[in-house]
Amino acid sequence: MEEALWETPLLRDFAGISPDFEGVPDETTILKFRHLLEKHELSKALFDEMTAVLTERGLLLRQGTIVDATLIAAPPSTTNRTKSRDPDMKQTRKGNQWYFSMKAHIGADAASGCVHSADMTWANVHDSVVTDALLHGEEDIAFGDSAYASHERSLEADRAEGDVVWATPFKRRKGQKLTDEQRRINRLTSGFRSKVEHVFRVVKRQFGYTKTRYRGLHKNSQQIFCQLTLANIYIMRVHLA
Questions:
Q1: Rounded to whole angstroms, what are the CA distances from 117 to 1, 20, 26, 89, 164?
Q2: Which of 66, 116, 163, 221 is the most exposed place for a label (fewest CB within 10 A)?
Q3: Which residues, in sequence order, are CB contacts of 94 under 8 Å at separation 6+?
């Protein structure tokens, strides 16, 4: 970052640094600032503030939520002082492949696709475990893939008045086939769920965040909150402008 501030006039202008390079922070200053953010969990505070701004401007309708999770790979190398891998990262299997990583769980607004809640866990924590933390409580409907489907989280579940309607995919039971209506509903709900993948695309492709950069779940969680805050700004850049 120090080199980028010296070499890129646009970044210096954004940071409010004078054209004569006065006040360009060195690497140590930037590192201390990052530690300050981590210690007081200010990245999460910035994420919450950005969510409040989007809600105030009417960009988060809060009528529906899409929940999903993604793996963030961690370096498996043991060439460090302790000769060990990061103890806060775990292994999990996806398909036939094993991953050493952490997991980012998010809840996105069904209308805009912006993230309004998030939680970070070990990779081996099932997606459905943190579901309640991803709902804000005002939504009428929630969308999730087959990892969230259960007897209580489905369109066929028994619900009391005011309960959230869960739109999870219908699963084919052994010896039976899905009806034409069930297949049609699955196609329809998958179109809504696809919005949450846009957030992961921005973070992993636009921002290039495909691997953890620090050791420990807390440090990486704080950085992911920053990434999600910036992803919301990127997705809503036209409206915010």
A1: 28, 41, 33, 22, 17
A2: 163
A3: 71
Structure tokens given for 1: 């970052």
Distance CA 236, CA 104 (A): 21
Closest to 91 (Cα-Cα) out of 54, 136, 112, 122: 122
Residue 10 lies inside a defined structural domain of this protein:
no
Q: How many CB atoms lie within 10 A of CB 46?
A: 17
Range 131-155 average pLDDT = 92
pLDDT tens profile 50-91: 999 999 999 998 899 999 999 999 988 887 787 788 888 999
- Separation of CA 235 from chain center: 13
Whole-angstrom Cα distance, residue 112 to residue 151?
28
Query: What is the total count of domains within the chain?
Result: 1
Residue 205 DSSP code: I
Using the 8-state DSSP alphabet, how is residue 173 labeled? P
In which domain, by residue range, is 183 found? Answer: 41-240
Angle at 77 between CA 74 and CA 83, to 5 degrees: 120
